[in-house]
Write a structure and sequence with these properties.
Length: 109
Amino acid sequence: MAWLVCGDQVMASLELVESRVERCRALLGRDGIEGALLVKPAGHAHTVGMRFSIDVAYLDSDMRVLRVTTMGPNRVGRHVRGARSILEAESGSFERWGLQVGDELTVRT
């Protein structure tokens, strides 16, 4: 199992999504998610066909948070310049975790 870490704080369990098939499926068909999903490579997010709202963080190649937003179901996000991966979690998670623009994240296994 992987963990999302910011500094010395473990923020959440983490699912890694790296293959094309995994990216196509991601959160579709789910009623929620525990922890977070890291989608890479990715430069934008969408919630078309999803059943719940999500928090989305756009990350650069160093996993630094470039932008944070919340998306309701059936929305298409715009591309964020410099984004190389996307972090997704249930709406409200980033606020609980204290995730902010400028945070540098790491993945621990």
